[in-house]
C-alpha cells in the first residue's frame, strides 16, 4: 500500500537537495557554454591542428558514456595526484561532456550566417575577431537558442548521475530515504515531480529568451 505521507517529514531535505541539483546544473551549463564556444571556434578555424584537436575531442566525448567520463574524473584523477571534490568532479564531467555537443550546436549556428555579411565586414576593414564578436556570434547564438535549451534540459536530468560519486543532490537523497523507509515508489515519484518542476522552469525561461530575441530581431 502506498503511503505518500511518509514524504512530508523529508520534504525540507529533498528541497535542499534540489537546490544542489540546480547549482550543479547551472554551473555545468555555464562551463559547457564557454568550453563549447572555444571548441567550435577551433573546429571552424583555418588552423588544421586546432581543427583536428576539436574533432578528436568531440569524437571521444560523444563516443563514450558520460558515466565513464565522470568516473575517470572522480576516481581516475586521484591516481595522478589530482584530488577533486565530488561536486567539482561532477561539474567538470557534466560541463565538458556538454561542451562537445554545444560546440556542434554553435558550429551549426555559425555556419548558418550568410557569407555575404562576413565579406561585407571584411571589405570595410574589420578584423576576424571583430567580425566574430559583433556580427557572427550574436546571430549564431540567437539561431542556436532552441538547441541550447534542449541541451540545458538534458544536462539538468543527467545531473542525477552525480549521485554515483556521492554528491548529495536530489537523486541521491531520494534514494537514501527510499531505502531507509522502504518507500521506493513514493520517494522516486516525489523526485520525478521535482525534476519535472525544474525542467519546466528551465523550458519556460529559455522560451522567454527565445521569444525576446526573436522580437528584437524583427
Which keywords apply here?
ArtM/GltK/GlnP/TcyL/YhdX-like, transmembrane, mainly alpha, elongated, AA_ABC_transptr_permease_3TM, MetI-like_sf, transport, MetI-like fold
Description:
The chain is an all-alpha fold. It has a single domain, classed as Orthogonal Bundle (MetI-like fold). Helices cover 79% and strands 0% of the residues. It has eight helices and no strands. Helix 2 packs across helix 4 and helix 3 packs across helix 4. The protein is elongated.
What does this entry show, briefly?
The chain is mostly helical and 218 residues long.
Q: How many domain units?
A: 1
What gap, in angstroms, lies between the N and C termini?
Answer: 57 Å
Low-confidence blocks of residues? none
**Gross geometry:** elongated
CATH C-level category: Mainly Alpha
Task: Report on the biggest sheet.
Answer: none
Query: What is the helix/strand order?
Result: HHHHHHHH
Indicate the radius of gyration in whole angstroms.
Answer: 21 Å
Write down the overall mean pLDDT.
90
> Structural class, from secondary structure content?
mainly alpha
At CATH level 2, the architecture is Orthogonal Bundle
Examine the coordinates and then state which fold CATH places here, giving the name of the CATH topology.
MetI-like fold
Subcellular location: Cell membrane
Family: Belongs to the binding-protein-dependent transport system permease family.
InterPro entries: AA_ABC_transptr_permease_3TM (IPR010065), ArtM/GltK/GlnP/TcyL/YhdX-like (IPR043429), MetI-like (IPR000515), MetI-like_sf (IPR035906)
Protein name: Amino acid ABC transporter permease
Amino acid at each position: 500500500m502506498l503511503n505518500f505521507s511518509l514524504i512530508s517529514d523529508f520534504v525540507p531535505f529533498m528541497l535542499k537537495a534540489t537546490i544542489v541539483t540546480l547549482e550543479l546544473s547551472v554551473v555545468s551549463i555555464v562551463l559547457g557554454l564557454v568550453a563549447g564556444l572555444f571548441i567550435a571556434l577551433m573546429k571552424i578555424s583555418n588552423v588544421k591542428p586546432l581543427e583536428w584537436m576539436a574533432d578528436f575531442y568531440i569524437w571521444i566525448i560523444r563516443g563514450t558514456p558520460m558515466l565513464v567520463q565522470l568516473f575517470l574524473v572522480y576516481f581516475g584523477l586521484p591516481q595522478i595526484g589530482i584530488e577533486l571534490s565530488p561536486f567539482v568532479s561532477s561539474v567538470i564531467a557534466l560541463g565538458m561532456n556538454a561542451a562537445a555537443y554545444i560546440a556542434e550546436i554553435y558550429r551549426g549556428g555559425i555556419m548558418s550566417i550568410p557569407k555575404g555579411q562576413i565579406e561585407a565586414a571584411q571589405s570595410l576593414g574589420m578584423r576576424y575577431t571583430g567580425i566574430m564578436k559583433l556580427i557572427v556570434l550574436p546571430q549564431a547564438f540567437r539561431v542556436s537558442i532552441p538547441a541550447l535549451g534542449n541541451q540545458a534540459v538534458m544536462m539538468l536530468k543527467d545531473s542525477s548521475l552525480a549521485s554515483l560519486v556521492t554528491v548529495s543532490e536530489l537523486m541521491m537523497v531520494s534514494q537514501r530515504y527510499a531505502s531507509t523507509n522502504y518507500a521506493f515508489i513514493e520517494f522516486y515519484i516525489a523526485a520525478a515531480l521535482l525534476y519535472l518542476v525544474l525542467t519546466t522552469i528551465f523550458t519556460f525561461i529559455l522560451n522567454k529568451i527565445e521569444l525576446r530575441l526573436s522580437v528584437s530581431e524583427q
